Amino acid sequence: MVDQPLQPFAPPFALFAQLHVPDTLSAGAAVTWALYIVSAFWALYTLVAIYHWLKYSHASWVAFPAIALHLFISFALMAYTLSGNAFSLTPYLP
Amino acid sequence: MKEFELEPGEHIVKQVRKHWFLFLSGLLPYAILAIIPFALPKFLVFAPPLAHYATFFEYQTPLMRAAFGVWLLIIWTGAWGAFTRYFLNVWVLTNKRITTIKQRRFFYREVASLLLPRIQDVTTDVAGILPSLLGIGDIKVQSAGADVQFTMRGIPRPEQMRDLILKYVSTKPQTTNI
User: Fold this and answer.
1) Residue pair B57/B37 in contact by the 8 Å Cβ criterion
2) pTM confidence score
3) Taking chain A (94 residues) in consecutive chunks of 10 residues, what is each chunk's mean pLDDT?
4) Which positions in chain B have a beta carbon within 8 angstroms of at least one beta carbon in chain A?
């Protein structure tokens, strides 16, 4: 294979067809998928962190306010991302 | 305490975490990253060849607002994770032992205990101007016999902690049912 010229990159259209992914991805669909991926990572990270808080914080009173604050700010930022309205954080965001 | 059960007659004397200043220093990268989307358009204006890129940061458009929101969400989640790790790293001094709980990252946890009668030497180390002013230092506890050494870095008022440890080391140990 080393003596053959490099081939230009081509998207794996055969794989796309099997997965029912359209050949041309619109900007709106790309943004939607990006938001899905970010949300999935956020949810996984938050679940892992909450598990550690509840299991290892030694029943500290800090655990529940910390979790509640994280969820509030995260949901406010998600709402801002989707609609521009971040509840009580709106005055502090552009 | 979930990691270790307190024996009959044992009680927690003190719990120590890293100094708040070190925690806030650890949050500084997150703060800088969060400020970049606000500050960058203003700085670009001062660089004429790049000034036209300042219009790129118009957060009123849905796409840029979404990108900005996702950026802030990632930074906030990272900062909250840093706080979680800060809070779960703790030294616990009881009237019978010292327990160190190290949460290096998620699902990576070390818990070790050292009985007070086995303690041979307690050393504090405060080095530098800022640590001296803020009372930040390290404390090393050396056990007798094997080369067991507990070190906690960046704790507040290490001298007080050392005196507290030595106070309980010097008290006559109570008999246990172990």
Assistant:
1) yes
2) 0.81
3) 71 74 72 89 94 84 92 93 82 81
4) 1-3, 38, 59-60, 62-63, 65-66, 68-70, 72-74, 76-77, 80-81, 83-84, 87-88, 101, 103, 106-107, 109
